[in-house]
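Deliverable D4.2, example record:
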Amino acid sequence: MHDYAVIFLDRIEENARRQAAARHLINAALNCGADAVRFLEIIHAHLSPGHPIPNPYRLMPEAREWASWASTAERKAYALACYEALPPADQVAFLSYVSGEEAA
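Output generated by the structure prediction step:
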């Protein structure tokens, strides 16, 4: 039981440290004035996973892993760009797959 108490207290302390760090970050953003948006864009870029790097041996698992870390905007942008780059027949097959319909 003692081990669980230590783990629990460690987690509480870690959450308190993270909350204090988040508070400093929020205060920094609020005090940036006209540069606040650029400041937040830099933070977002740093936290984003970047572009997907395909691994031909594990293509779908790698794509799914990247997608789990990507922002919604990144997922939408890459999904649309990839769809637009497909040949017309593959676009039809893709739409059939994601809609659950039989391919024509």
